[in-house]
Design a protein that fits this description.
The chain has 283 residues and is an all-alpha fold. It is 73% helix and 0% strand. It has ten helices and no strands. The protein is elongated and about 90 Å long. The N and C termini lie close together (7 Å).
């Protein structure tokens, strides 16, 4: 958050700067971008204010420890975009692997295989599928963890309902993640709106959209589980049943829709978090 001295420097108000310096304000305070008053005045080319700050000893302040130097906003934005890009890539690879598996399975089951060979060959196909799936799934979860972690870092701690580590970490717990996504994503928007309200900003982000997306994800997961159970039962009785073939086609279409929907929502989240960062930098 900007201190009164930071705000006075931003506005170039020398008289208020002089009054604050006379009151003994903190010359080492850092704003949301990690800038001291002297850093900000230098950045904005307010030479007279720089001179006043130097006369008060601002130039003699010890530099912060190297490990604690906050990144500039543009660097944090690049970091968020980087992790989202990796989420896009890993989700895309997962979808391609899933579609390839379904097509190979459909091709095998519709080729009229010998009944004694069906389960044996299907087992080989499944082994190769899971061998490729799990590394990509782990990579996707890893990227999703850091994407969530980085966007939650932008919410001031006094307004955040959870920490970045908890927001990201608890999202990886099976089944519990169904509840937690409403906190990690819907709660993110609510906390950003609450923060902007405290800043006197009129702009609000659409938390309803993200909550709706969470509901869609939850319903989609439940449908996928039910479909998998039905397909598994039918496959045991007759692996070449038209119901099984249809289920594989359904999975292909569903995977494509899920991937596109998910990536669009993640892109919207990234876009709004970057807007939030811009607002925070100007406060």
């Amino acid at each position: 958050m900007n201190t009164p001295l930071h705000i006075a420097i931003q506005n170039g108000n020398i008289e208020i700067v002089k009054a604050l310096l006379a009151d003994g304000c903190d010359l080492g305070a850092r704003n949301a971008d990690g800038l001291t008053p002297l850093d900000l005045a230098t950045k904005l080319n307010h030479d007279e204010i720089v001179r006043l700050l130097l006369e008060r000893g601002a130039g003699r302040l010890p530099p912060p420890p190297m490990g604690n130097v906050p990144l500039e906003p543009h660097q944090r934005k690049k970091r968020i975009s980087f992790w989202l890009m990796l989420v896009f890539i890993t989700c895309g690879v997962l979808s391609l692997i899933g579609i390839a598996y379904e097509l190979i399975t459909i091709g095998f089951l519709t080729s009229n295989p010998h009944p004694q060979e069906i389960h044996k060959i299907k087992a080989v196909i499944d082994v190769f599928y899971f061998f490729l799936l799990f590394p990509c799934l782990a990579a996707s979860l890893f990227c999703y963890f850091f994407f969530l972690f980085r966007i939650w870092e932008e919410v001031p701690r006094e307004f955040a309902r959870t920490t970045p580590g908890m927001a990201a970490g608890l999202s990886l717990i099976p089944f519990f993640s169904w509840y937690w996504m409403f906190v990690a994503l819907g709660g993110l928007y609510q906390d950003m709106n609450k923060t902007m309200e405290s800043w006197g900003q009129e702009k609000r982000f659409n938390a309803t959209l993200i909550i709706t997306a969470c509901v869609v994800w939850l319903v989609g997961d439940l449908i996928s589980i039910m479909q998998g159970m039905v397909m598994g039962i039918v496959s045991v009785m007759d692996a070449t049943s038209p119901i099984v073939i249809f289920s594989h086609f359904f999975t292909i279409v569903w995977s494509l829709l899920w991937c596109v929907f998910t990536l669009v929502i993640y892109w919207i989240i990234r876009k709004n978090v970057l807007k939030f960062m811009d607002i925070k930098s100007g406060v």
